[in-house]
């Protein structure tokens, strides 16, 4: 049961501490061990409240509620071949997060699609990660939410990470951990301390990621990705409730599955189901689709990246690089 994996201090029963084997998968700000695809000279860039500047020159107030309380939301967008991918879907989710926490900001009036297009051009990066963060703004530190604050809006442009080919070929190992987060993880909030602590502990033990599991044994997602299981040729994913992030890449995986005739079932499943899967994989904006070959030191299926995982990743990359990544966006 997940209670035996209750987060940062506990090792699952019967597991061992592994030697570190995986590089950091994160995008912006990741370890220098992550390779970077560079087609043009790279200049990490920021757009802060209407002005572009080198990223190291961007400054916000120490009274910003994002800094004081984590009072804000964010979004991450992948750029392929100089084109923001699935931009409309990302901006729609950003709007849902804004509404969910009652931010007084009209996202359409920010013109973020135009900001992103200009930022990509200014940065000279063909392969990039765009990070958007909107906080409630700066005010004296009180818990009550002040009315009428101008929000702080930041967009950064950094080189995209590349998952090493060897890692993608062999797959990754994950540990399971008790679900300790709040009940509204569908909001892409900047308050990520539980995820950070669990991710750090997973890396310390030698795992690539950690999967949150409820006390009842229900599988949710990882610290920074959605998770899928494959059994008997069918793709299974946890339901998109308020308890998990509704992934943009997750939704694209469903599109890809339909195109390659892989049936999908969106239904809750137990940790035992995941451990008995023929294949498993995780998905995110920066990872795309990445095979999981070990869970708590036990192999998934035959311990190799499975054919459906490979097929879905190939279809996703083909879709990402085949042409314009979005229609005209008025946002």
Question: Would you give an account of this structure?
Answer:
- The protein has 331 residues and is α+β, with helices and mostly antiparallel strands.
- It folds into 2 domains: 2-7 and 164-321, D-amino Acid Aminotransferase, subunit A, domain 2 (D-amino Acid Aminotransferase, Chain A, domain 2), CATH 3.20.10.10; 40-160, 2-Layer Sandwich (D-amino Acid Aminotransferase, Chain A, domain 1), CATH 3.30.470.
- Helices cover 26% and strands 25% of the residues.
- The strands form 3 sheets. Strands 9, 10, 11, 12, 13, 14, 15, 16 and 17 form a 9-stranded mixed beta sheet that branches. A 6-stranded antiparallel beta sheet has the order 3-2-7-6-4-5.
- A hairpin with a 5-residue loop joins strand 10 (209-213) and strand 11.
- Helix 7 (248-259) packs across helix 9.
- The longest helix is centred in the C-terminal third of the chain and has 15 residues, at 307-321.
- The chain is globular and about 55 Å long.
């Amino acid at each position: 049961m997940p209670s035996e994996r209750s987060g940062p201090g506990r090792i699952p029963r019967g597991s061992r501490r592994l030697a570190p084997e995986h590089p950091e998968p994160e995008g912006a700000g990741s370890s220098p061990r992550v390779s970077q695809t560079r087609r043009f000279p790279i200049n990490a860039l920021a757009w802060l409240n209407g002005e572009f500047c080198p990223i190291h020159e961007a400054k916000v107030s120490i009274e910003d509620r994002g800094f004081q309380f984590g009072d804000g939301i964010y979004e991450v967008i992948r750029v392929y071949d100089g084109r923001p991918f699935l931009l409309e879907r990302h901006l729609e989710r950003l709007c849902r997060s804004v509404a969910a926490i009652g931010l007084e900001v009209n996202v359409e009036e920010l013109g973020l699609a135009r900001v992103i297009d200009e930022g990509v051009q200014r940065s000279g990066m063909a392969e990039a990660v765009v990070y958007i963060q909107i906080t409630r703004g700066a005010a004296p530190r009180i818990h009550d939410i002040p009315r009428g604050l101008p929000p702080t809006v930041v967009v950064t442009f950094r080189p995209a990470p590349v998952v090493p080919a060897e890692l993608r070929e062999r797959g990754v190992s994950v540990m399971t951990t008790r679900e300790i987060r709040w009940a509204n993880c569908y909001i892409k909030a900047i308050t990520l301390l539980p995820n950070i602590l669990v991710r750090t502990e997973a890396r310390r033990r030698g795992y690539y990621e950690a999967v949150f599991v409820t006390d009842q044994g229900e599988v949710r997602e990882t610290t920074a990705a959605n998770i899928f299981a494959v059994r008997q040729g069918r793709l299974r994913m946890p339901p998109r409730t308020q308890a998990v992030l509704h992934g943009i890449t997750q939704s694209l995986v469903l599109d890809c599955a339909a195109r390659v005739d892989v049936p999908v079932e969106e239904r809750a499943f137990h940790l035992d189901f995941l451990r008995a899967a023929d294949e498993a994989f995780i998905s995110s904006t920066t990872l795309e689709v990445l095979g999981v070959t070990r869970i708590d030191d036990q192999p998934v299926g035959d311990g190799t990246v499975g054919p459906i995982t490979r097929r879905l990743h190939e279809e996703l990359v083909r879709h990402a690089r085949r042409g314009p990544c979005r229609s005209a966006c008025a946002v």
